[in-house]
Amino acid sequence: MPHAGVVVGLDPSLRFLRARPPAPSTAPTAPASRAAADATPGPQVAADTVPVPSVTDDPAPAAPVTDGPAPAPPATDDPAARVNRVAGDAAALPFADRVFDAVVSGLALNFVPRPEAAVAEFARVARPGAVVAAYVWDYAEGMQMIRHFWDVAADLDPAAEALDEGRRFPICHAPALAEAWMAAGLRRVTTTKIEIPTVFRSFDDFWHPFLGGQGPAPAYLAAQPPDRREAIRQALATRLGPNVIALTAGAWAVRGFKDI
Fold first, then answer.
1. 212-246, pLDDT tens digit by residue?
2. Structure pTM?
3. Nearest to residue 17, comparing CAs of 249, 217, 246, 209?
4. CATH-assigned architecture of domain 3-257
5. Cα dist from 214 to 9, 18, 93, 187, whole Å
């Protein structure tokens, strides 16, 4: 019988990052996930229940289900058809206790009003012995593309500083993630830094994603008068130059296990 897992995801910045031109450039995308929701910010999430072959990071087997089954995927060889997508509140997942062998949150926790409540829910729906994990962008230091934008914007408009994700999302730090996991009763908690090369073939390639209006930085830019938008563009062009721009996108991952 296949194991069951749930992936919780929500990140409008995915649409922002996908708005850029195709290869040969490489813009940041989700670090690793079986699914990512395309939704607006807020407490609502998409929870995808997927079959997983095994959970090999913990030698102890998951305990039998006692509180009700996980949603059963359809019997088919098509992986996409075996996914059940459910919209709900991250702080009140619509699943019974102790039903999943793996619970993963992808780029979602910083959009949840009370991240600690969401992590408690992840732990609640996990079976004893299950792995509970998440990853979030490292907005404060690791997202160089966004970091350059907000540094320039704040120089030209001090009010922009309050919109900077690095300041707005305190959960997007390794110590905060580890603390949330331990507070939820999870054990053997570890955090890992993920870095993704993001190479832009020109400044225009770098600038294009900011014009789509999706995500905090593009939304801020779209709300500015034309002269300020142009001033931001010129300042970034001076800072980064017209040729290939090699940056990195950083994320933090956290993992813990539910006690048996």
1. 998 899 999 999 999 999 999 999 999 999 999 99
2. 0.73
3. 209
4. 3-Layer(aba) Sandwich (3.40)
5. 17, 10, 26, 37
